[in-house]
Amino acid sequence: RYFLVLDDVWAENFQFWETLRLPLMDGGKESKVLITARSKLVLKGMPTLLCIHLEGLTEDPCAELLLKQAFPNGCSSQHPNLEKISKKIVKRCHGSPLQAKLLGCLLNNETEEDKWEDMLNEVCSLEKDTNGILPSLMISYNHLDYHLKQCFKYCSMFPIDYEFDRDELVKLWMAEGLIQRSRSRSTLEVIGGKYFDNLLWRSFFEVSGNQGQKQKYRMPSLMHDLHDLA
């Protein structure tokens, strides 16, 4: 018997499930398969005994996450007008922590109410014209500096859940000529490290685990939706 976990499955075609099902038929009666997916269409090709729909974050914790990214020093309570706008913004996040973090980063230490209103309007305007890409992802990508867009574009070729090392990725960027020399005396390695840290802070990268004593990273699966845009 077996317990098989398939995480973040995207395949919606029947042939995929048929190919997978055949070798699993030899398992015992107590064998189980656990599947996680973002699309209900994924499960249509496979019979399921129990389907559990997980809700996203409720409005309050989603707003707290956005404000934490916008005001890392915790001073959001000094701007009650911005807290009100944050509630309107997170309604467009549909409970997604990643979307809340992305938008919060773009509003980092921004205290002008007009800027928050502009962000809300930008999210609303993109909701109906994103070709399936979450508005917050498109906004975050559009707000990247050109050199960061180029580095992200390079990473978009990585397969989903591919793990990479910070220093090794910086060297790959250097080899491709993606790191711009600055007027300071900083080496390309240092500049590339700042590029990496910037993308990590903006949630284009995330920590995935440790291999030995080295920290490993990957792109959140949602970021792969930007592949065609990049």
Automatic annotation (TrEMBL):
Pfam families membership: NB-ARC, WHD_DRP
Occurrences of domain Disease resistance protein winged helix (ranges): 157-226
* Source domain of life: Eukaryota
Domain NB-ARC, by residue range, is 1-73
Say yes or no: keyword Repeat present: yes
Give the record's GO biological process terms.
defense response to bacterium; innate immune response-activating signaling pathway; plant-type hypersensitive response
Q: Which residues form a coiled coil?
A: none
- InterPro entries per record: Apaf_helical (IPR042197), Disease_R_plants (IPR044974), NB-ARC (IPR002182), P-loop_NTPase (IPR027417), WH-like_DNA-bd_sf (IPR036388), WHD_DRP (IPR058922)
> What GO molecular function annotations does the UniProt record carry, in alphabetical order?
ADP binding
User: What keywords appear on the UniProt entry?
Assistant: Plant defense, Repeat
Which PANTHER family does the UniProt entry name for this protein?
DISEASE RESISTANCE PROTEIN RP (PTHR23155), DISEASE RESISTANCE RPP13-LIKE PROTEIN 1-RELATED (PTHR23155:SF1241)
Protein name in the entry: NBS-LRR resistance protein RGC110
Organism the protein comes from: Cocos nucifera (Coconut palm)
